[in-house]
Amino acid sequence: MSILELSGVKKSFGAVQVLHGVDLKVWPGEVVGLVGDNGAGKSTLMKSITGVYTTDKGSVIFDGKDVTYHSPGERREMGIEMIYQDLALAPQQDVANNIFLGREPTRWLLGILPSFVQKSRIDEQAQEMLDRLGVHVPSVHIPVGMLSGGQQQTIAIARALTFQPKLVIMDEPTAALAVREVESVLKLIEQMKKDGIATILISHRLNDVFAACERIVVLRRGNVISDLKRSATDMAEVVSYIVGAHG
Ligand SMILES: Nc1ncnc2c1ncn2[C@@H]1O[C@H](COP(=O)(O)OP(=O)(O)OP(=O)(O)O)[C@@H](O)[C@H]1O
Ligand SMILES: [Mg+2]
């Protein structure tokens, strides 16, 4: 069974129609690249999955349930996580606190009230999480704002994974990263795949898309105009779809 199924998703802002009836299926453990020109509607489509936007028409089925009218909170609860380009981390807080930022304590400390939550416990769990993911930071005690862009990106992913998601959407996770940092993000995606987590990766960097994704979906002016297997395509073809060489 697919983990996500979009059917006929339409979205307008005022008089401007941004999504023109998008169909998309994603399977558990699948890594799908979503590419397209600036303004093609990628972020809008993803926000329609997380519930930030309600679609005007069409349906969003997640994990076998119709979530078209569910709130973002309900969808997150069901296992949809999105990592935004600005990451939404608290730079002055340390690594460990960021990983558990905004969490209801009942979900991760078995009902212990926040005032009784020991910092040492948070640090310990954060370190465990990072070790499990193979993420290396100098210490969980240093403020996130002092980490490199790539390290911050991996912390944002680690944070998303503590919610035990079934689908993770990443909007341009590698845009600002150096080569080595890109590698660690792509490694994390691979790791998530092994755990059966589906990923939708939005990126303008086709190298990263081809490295991480077995399937590449091209959005153009609010329509899916191609849905390609990596093994059956190449960058030139993907670019030709992005720029509309096929009409
Ligand atoms: N909240 C909004 N109100 C009005 N128009 C919007 C809103 N959000 C997006 N749009 C418009 O919808 C279109 C698609 O935007 P979207 O952000 O989804 O594109 P994108 O494919 O993510 O582009 P990029 O690659 O530049 O991030 C754009 O023309 C944008 O101006
Ligand atoms: Mg965008």
In a nutshell, what does this entry contain?
The chain is α/β, with parallel strands linked by helices. The chain has a domain at 4-90 and 164-243: P-loop containing nucleotide triphosphate hydrolases (Rossmann fold, 3-Layer(aba) Sandwich), CATH 3.40.50.300.
Could you name the CATH topology of the domain at 4-90 and 164-243? Rossmann fold
Q: Any ligands, ions or cofactors bound here, and which? A: adenosine-5'-triphosphate, magnesium ion
Compute the number of helices: 9
CATH homologous superfamily grouping of the domain at 4-90 and 164-243: P-loop containing nucleotide triphosphate hydrolases
Which percent bin holds the helix content? Answer: 25-40%
**What summary fits the major beta sheet?**
6 strands, mixed
Order of helices and strands: EEEHEEHEHHHHEHEHEEH
Task: Let me know the average pLDDT.
Answer: 88
Top-tier CATH class of the domain at 4-90 and 164-243 = Alpha Beta
**Rounded radius of gyration (Å):** 18 Å
Shape: globular
Distance between the termini: 33 Å
For this structure, the quaternary state is single chain
Low-confidence stretches: 104-108
Structural class: alpha/beta
Going across the major beta sheet, what is the strand order?
Answer: 6-7-8-3-9-10
Q: Estimate the strand proportion.
A: 15-25%
- The count of β-strands is 10
| CATH architecture descriptor name of the domain at 4-90 and 164-243 | 3-Layer(aba) Sandwich
